[in-house]
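LAB NOTEBOOK - FOLDING QUEUE
OPERATOR: T.R.
BATCH SIZE: 2
PURPOSE: Compare the predicted structure-token outputs for two unrelated chains run back to back under identical settings.
PRIORITY: normal
REVIEWER: second-year student, initials M.K.

ITEM 1
FIELD SEQUENCE / FIELD STRUCTURE:
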Amino acid sequence: MCDFEEYIFTCGHNALNLQGYCHQSRNHPRHECNNVKRLRNSWYQERPCNACTDAMNGTGRGNGSSGHSSHREDSRGPFVRDTGEQHWR
């Protein structure tokens, strides 16, 4: 089981941060894990996520709203975003 931390933002989005690989993914060349993901900690942030902040300020590449449609879908998976934060859908 890989260990994750969760960051919960005021905009309603949450971000996951990998804390440590499990034995199976640590030995896999691409660190793939098909086991259960274990959530170690949840941290409440007193701010919106970077993507929503950029959208609200009009500086982001989104459509100007802080909703889900302002986030670009990424073919690499649900954990990767341009902002550096890892969002969970």
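ITEM 2
FIELD SEQUENCE / FIELD STRUCTURE:
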Amino acid sequence: MRRVILILTILAGIILAACSAPKKWQGSPYVATGPAQVANGSWDFSEFKPGIILPSAQKEVKVLLYTGKAATISSNGYRFKYGASEKRGSGNFRPDRPGTYLPDDGRFTFGGKTYPGKLVILRKGSRYQYINHVDETEYLISVVSHEMSPSWPIEALKAQAVVARTYLYQRQKTAGNSAYEVDSTTNSQVYKGFAKGDQNVRKAVAESQGEVVTYKNELAQVFFYSCAGGFTAAASEVWSADLPYLIAQKSEYCKGAPVYRWNTKFSKKELEAKLGIRNIRSISVSARTPSRRAHMIKIVTSNGTRTMRGTVFRSKMGATRVKSTLFGIRMQNGKIAIAGKGFGHGVGMDQWGTKFLVEKHGKSYKDVIAHYFPGTRVDRKSAGWTPS
């Protein structure tokens, strides 16, 4: 036990020293909210083009809730339209064909959660897709309620609302002919329908209505995560794209967060199974990013040396156990100890930092956005706005 404590103490010291002078880094538990991953393991920003246009005035969001076998929906009363036919009923309903489910009171229950709007059911081969068509305001209220605690300060909730709206508009403009624009997970933004005690969130969304983050009169590319661990990361460190407002900078505002410091342990057997590599003799961080996150991991085996990106290592080991790539790692006596800081990819807005900037430093939501996206501004734009 003393040996383990000593190891973790040493590792914590390593991390603090490593983070002392950095050059400049897609929700929840916040693993990553960002662009799509491409085949080579990097991230594709090509879909986000300059001169992006805000969505039209339809004010509806199409959210993929579920893909799989036919599953049960319920409501007090409903109409199910398929082709030229219509079925009416109440209570539980399991569709056996594609169609549109219209609850009489505008809400339905699925998977233990209650959602607003209607449900479009599509068939994809042997599986179904359940797509919630929901009013934009209700969508944003749900996202903010599930990405942040509704009990947090309203200025923090407003910052999350503006960033969530900006991210949504990005996705809507790149959805093309897809049947849905976002999904309900951290691949997009967390959406779980109605949330209890969301009065402050409703106020935050209403008071920031129409507001988005812009850079040089263009819609900014915005991302968020739980806690920076002392330093935000530049986009180029994570997704091989350089954006002037997504930079690495010292930012210790999430210092009081429960995930500011963390540690975890793995057995050698567990490590080898998760990485798919046998006979590991040693493992270490061989290269760091400017914000001191683990860029490359060196793995020495009985058959030679291999390297792996820090982001890939985190994904393989489990992104809720290895909460960020801002960590130190040590292997001794067949045990692997990892001590780290922060939770998430570190690019863009730090959610715990946002809370404390408002609570402890009296900052407004616009101040928060200016800090995490330097050089941007918050603009109120009507639907259909085209940046010049």
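REVIEWER COMMENT (ITEM 2): The longest strand covers residues 73-82.
FOLLOW-UP: none requested
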